[in-house]
Amino acid sequence: MKPQSWLRRNWLLAAGGAFVSIHLATWILQRVMKSSVRSEVALKEKTAEGKNF
Known about the structure:
By secondary structure, the chain is mostly helical. The protein contains 2 helices and no strands. The chain starts with 5 loop residues before the first helix and ends with a helix.
């Protein structure tokens, strides 16, 4: 009998790790995009204030 591969023995761990990794990466991307948009809006407001005076 052939020994089973690591993936066949630990498929649940591998699937769970992939699931958590994808969601963590998505969360990090959302945080980065949100802060990028906030800084861009703040920069536009700052330049708009400069033009008014």
